[in-house]
Amino acid sequence: MKRTPRKALIVIILAVLGLLAWQFDLFTAGDCLIQGGRWNWDNGFCRLDSLSRPS
Question: pTM for the full model?
């Protein structure tokens, strides 16, 4: 029985993790957190508190 090359397994695992992150909107939530906001999981929107504070 031939062994699957390690690189192929790593690519498949990364693809599955990427699809799971996309499915659960983790990319959008991550962008929101990087911009300094809070991600609302219930309604799926980003609340940027920095825009409401006076400078």
Answer: 0.59
Contact 49, 36 (CB under 8 A): yes
Asked if residue 47 lies in contact with residue 40, where contact means CB atoms within 8 angstroms, the answer is: yes
Structure-token pair, residue 54 = 């006076």
pLDDT, one tens digit per residue, over 25-34 is 888 888 888 8
CA distances in angstroms from 18 to 5, 21, 44, 52, 54, listed in the order given: 20, 5, 19, 33, 38
Contact 46, 40 (CB under 8 A): yes
> Which residues does residue 46 pair with via DSSP β-bridges, in sequence order?
39
Answer whether 39's CB lies under 8 Å from 33's CB.
Answer: yes
